[in-house]
């Protein structure tokens, strides 16, 4: 009966349902797979962190990347959804300098709800709000962050620690 209802078909396609072949891997129980994170800033090549490479999460904490003080930048996440609809995915981040959480160092940004990926839409990309690195001599130094991708049900899909340096120049 649904097959003959054109408006229902269009509505399902607007939700990402029923448009293409499901790409879910039956051997992988994960619902959300974060493939990469990238930082983009004008005048600099994007810094891309391929999270699908073994050992990439460990390298994030050991090898900090540099952000120029006062630079504006955006973060992007590429991810895949499989098996079921993912409801209310959030990116939550806590930034510390040493053992002290910096003021304004806990942020949360809504990514959204997504249907499983299909061959017509094999990957989702979310661009976060533009940020500006702090400035001044006191702001320079090493920072540690903990980032999590968590859904409305409280399920954490990925959690990792990473480091970055605020410096006078790239």
Automatic annotation (TrEMBL):
GO terms for cellular component: cytosol; membrane. It comes from Neurospora hispaniola. Pfam families: Rho_GDI. InterPro entries: Ig_E-set (IPR014756), Rho_GDI (IPR000406), RhoGDI_dom_sf (IPR024792). PANTHER family: LD16419P, RHO GDP-DISSOCIATION INHIBITOR. Belongs to the Rho GDI family. One of its GO terms (molecular function) is Rho GDP-dissociation inhibitor activity. This is Rho GDP-dissociation inhibitor. Regulates the GDP/GTP exchange reaction of the Rho proteins by inhibiting the dissociation of GDP from them, and the subsequent binding of GTP to them. It is found in: Cytoplasm. Keywords: Cytoplasm. GO terms for biological process: Rho protein signal transduction.
